[in-house]
Design brief:
By secondary structure, this protein is mainly alpha-helical. The chain is built from 19 helices and no strands. The longest helix is centred in the C-terminal third of the chain and has 35 residues.
Length: about 450
């Protein structure tokens, strides 16, 4: 057994031990009650209340308590009935399994990157050898992704807080792993389950379609009549059938369509303005009611379809980067985000460690993340408990946190474009022959 496999096992063991320690400590409930961790959509307390109502014969969607899907309700009901004593183990196991799928996705992605680099190595411009990845990079990056997920403080807090985002991240990791290997049914079904839960992940069907076509094109080279349009249509049909089947199953579970308003109406109209790390709550607290529908539509379009087409067209050759960008944008602009959403896409960033040298805002973004992560709980305490601050202080921190994420996304995307330009056109030089660099203004 080589050193990398041993290190992987050690990482799993240590990460699991850290989670178990926190879950059995006095900090668990404190973490679970944090607004940065739990939201009305992922709170385990609301799941408990919804399952209790369901088991008592009361429709959990008739009130304003439960906002998860009927499929989730059925699964959670089974867990409470037969595995309630295993709850901590289930959350930790799901988190470790998520890391496994991310490691698998990163492994496949790095193999593709290595193959692509070897194929195009001779076509790259002279003097760009230092920009190419080394053999060591292709083997170590999956381990970095694994470690970045398992030891990410946001992910650890998310698991200890026992939010349903743990299960969403598991589905999302499986969707990415399925995309990489070109499994149409598996990736479409996992994206459909995510869409059923929170709507926004529906845009991930675009990178899934791109990845599936890329994998199919490799095995259908001799079939000249096979086009990307056919592949995309097949993918969208499978995805639509999966979503339709899940909605029908949800209807059969509850016997009514009340869940549509309680789940999707709640996500889209944002009636609960309890503070979180997102951008909706403060803005709509201050909003005049007659302007609300207009700005709700503007915010939701910004969170879903606005970036889908332009990013898909620009990153059509890099579906994994496209999927990561979508995950990041969703975590910034969704109506009820949490730290578990942010931690997930941060764990994917080591796959683009070769872009770090081309980034311009890395230090600033890191300072923003650290500062806002510390100041958030402090200003919440000053506002809610000490009453020596107000909502503006806390919203300022959440706004800075969102800004840092936007800086990070744009920096990664620009670094990718910059590196591709250098590889194809050579490193830019000043008139005196000294190296220069492109700067994002």
């Amino acid at each position: 057994m080589d050193i990398l496999k041993i290190s992987t096992l050690v990482v799993y063991a240590v990460a699991g031990a850290i989670r178990f320690w926190f879950l059995n400590s006095d900090y668990r409930q404190i973490i679970a009650d944090r607004v940065e961790i739990s939201t009305p959509l992922n709170s385990w307390k609301k799941v408990t209340e919804g399952v209790f109502l369901y088991n008592e014969g009361t429709d959990p969607y008739s009130g304003d308590v439960f906002h998860d899907t009927p499929v989730g309700l059925l699964i959670y009901s089974w867990v409470f009935s037969f595995a309630s004593s295993w709850l901590n183990i289930i959350f930790v196991a799901c988190d470790l399994l998520t890391a496994y799928f991310l490691n698998k996705a990163a492994t496949v992605f790095m193999l593709e990157l290595e193959l692509k680099q070897n194929e195009k190595k001779d076509t790259y411009a002279a003097g760009t050898k230092n920009l190419l990845l080394k053999a060591y990079d292709f083997h170590i990056v999956p381990f970095y992704v694994l470690s970045a997920y398992l030891f990410n403080p946001y992910i650890i807090l998310n698991c200890v807080g026992q939010t349903t985002t743990v299960f969403s991240n598991l589905l999302l990791a499986y969707a990415l792993a399925s995309m990489c290997t070109g499994k149409r049914v598996a990736s479409c079904c996992s994206v459909a389950l995510l869409t059923l839960q929170s709507l926004y992940p529906a845009i991930l069907v675009m990178p899934a379609a791109l990845y599936i076509y890329k994998n199919e094109a490799k095995t259908t080279v001799q079939n000249k009549h096979y086009t990307w349009k056919q592949s995309f249509i097949y993918t969208f049909v499978v995805f639509s059938l999966a979503v339709g089947s899940l909605l029908f199953l949800s209807y059969k579970i509850t016997g009514s369509l009340l869940f549509l308003n309680s789940v999707y109406g709640f996500i889209l109209t944002v009636p609960d303005l309890k503070p979180n790390i997102g951008l909706f709550w403060y803005f709509f607290t201050e909003m005049f009611e007659h302007f609300r529908p207009l700005f709700i539509a503007a915010f939701q379009i910004n969170a879903t379809v606005l970036y889908m087409l332009p990013l898909t067209l620009r990153l059509r050759e890099e579906p994994m980067l496209l999927a990561t960008s979508f995950c990041a944008l969703i975590s910034v602009f969704k109506s009820y985000p949490c730290l578990g959403d942010v931690g997930f896409y941060l764990a994917l960033l080591p796959m683009w460690k070769h872009l770090y040298n081309h980034m311009q805002q890395g230090f600033i973004v890191a300072c923003f993340f650290i500062t806002t992560s510390v100041l958030g709980p402090v200003l919440w305490h000053l506002w809610i408990y000490s009453r020596s601050a107000n909502a503006n202080f806390y919203f300022g921190v959440t706004l800075a946190f969102g800004t840092a994420q936007i800086f990070l996304i744009t920096d990664i995307l620009f670094a990718y474009i910059k590196r591709e330009f250098y590889l194809n056109n050579g490193l830019p030089r000043d008139p005196d022959g000294k190296p220069s660099k492109i700067v994002l203004q």
